[in-house]
Design brief:
The chain has one domain. Helix content is 25%, strand content 18%. It has two helices and two strands.
Length: 68
């Protein structure tokens, strides 16, 4: 399992900068949505490359001939 990290930086002017690492696709935004609502208005979002990675499930099927 990849390491997942949330970082917050509170600037002197009161703005909070948030960075999220280790989440792909929309899971990052889903994770931070309630926290961002509690902090106030989101002024800007800058998606990282991870935001554009699709979550894929990997499956493998075996025929009965392969099992024998």
């Amino acid at each position: 399992m990849p390491q997942r990290t949330l970082r917050f930086k509170i600037r002197q002017d009161g703005l909070v900068e948030e960075s999220v690492e280790g989440f792909s696709g929309q899971s990052c935004q889903q994770l931070t949505e309630k926290l961002e609502d509690a902090l106030g208005v989101v002024q800007r979002r800058e998606p990282t490359a991870e935001a554009y990675i699709r979550q894929e499930s990997q499956t493998q099927s075996l025929s009965s001939e392969q099992l024998i």
